[in-house]
């Protein structure tokens, strides 16, 4: 089953992206490089937000990233996930950033396979603040396999 088919099965909806101030998904050769995509959830992990809420916020970021990739490339099929950078708005004491960013990684594993094209490098970092107070921001790099 293709990534597009799996996304539809999961109920993911994609819509065209209007050009804005920054390029949400730039292409360089066979690479698609996304800008940071923020979660709709605002707040700070370790101060009112749970790991489960952060996990859902990271998944939300991954859906937004896929939407931008699809808008730029025309499909989410034929891609390999190379790298994620996950930024978590968190307190100094919060140390489960990796569990939060699993929300994005797990979705990409579902779509592309954990041992296949979805097996990616990743960083999960804590930040004192993120734009608009977002709980999570993630950027990604994909390789186009059929180019």
Whole-number mean pLDDT: 97
Gross CATH architecture: 2-Layer Sandwich
The helix-strand sequence is: HEEEEEHEHEE
CATH class group: Alpha Beta
> Which value, in Å, is the CA radius of gyration?
15 Å
Measure the end-to-end span: 20 Å
What fraction of the residues are assigned to beta strands by DSSP?
25-35%
Report a brief summary of the structure.
This protein is of the alpha/beta class. 35% of the residues lie in helices and 28% in strands. The protein has one domain: 60s Ribosomal Protein L30, Chain: A (2-Layer Sandwich), CATH 3.30.1330.40.
Structure, explained:
The protein is of the alpha/beta class and 147 residues long. The protein has one domain: 2-Layer Sandwich (60s Ribosomal Protein L30, Chain: A), CATH 3.30.1330. It is 35% helix and 28% strand. It is built from three helices and eight strands, in the order H-E-E-E-E-E-H-E-H-E-E. It has helices at 3-9, 51-73, 97-117, and strands at residues 25-28, 31-34, 37-38, 44-45, 48-49, 79-89, 121-127, 136-144. Strands 1, 2, 3, 6, 7 and 8 form a six-stranded mixed sheet that branches. A two-stranded parallel ribbon has the order 4-5. Strand 6, helix 3 and strand 7 (121-127) form a beta-alpha-beta unit. The longest helix has 23 residues, at 51-73. The two termini are 20 Å apart.
């Amino acid at each position: 089953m293709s990534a597009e088919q799996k996304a539809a099965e999961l109920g993911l909806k994609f819509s065209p992206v209007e050009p804005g101030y920054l390029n949400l998904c730039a292409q360089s050769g066979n690479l698609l490089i996304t800008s940071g995509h923020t979660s709709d959830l605002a707040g700070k992990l370790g101060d009112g937000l749970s790991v489960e809420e952060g996990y859902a916020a990271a998944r939300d970021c991954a859906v937004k990233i896929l939407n931008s990739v699809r808008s730029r490339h025309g499909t989410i099929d034929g891609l390999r996930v190379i790298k994620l950078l996950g930024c978590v708005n968190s307190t100094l004491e919060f140390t489960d950033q990796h569990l939060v960013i699993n929300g994005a990684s797990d979705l990409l594993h579902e779509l592309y396979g954990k041992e296949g094209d979805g097996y990616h490098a990743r960083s999960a970092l804590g930040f004192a603040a993120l734009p608009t107070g977002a709980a999570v921001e993630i950027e990604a790099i994909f390789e186009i396999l059929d180019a």
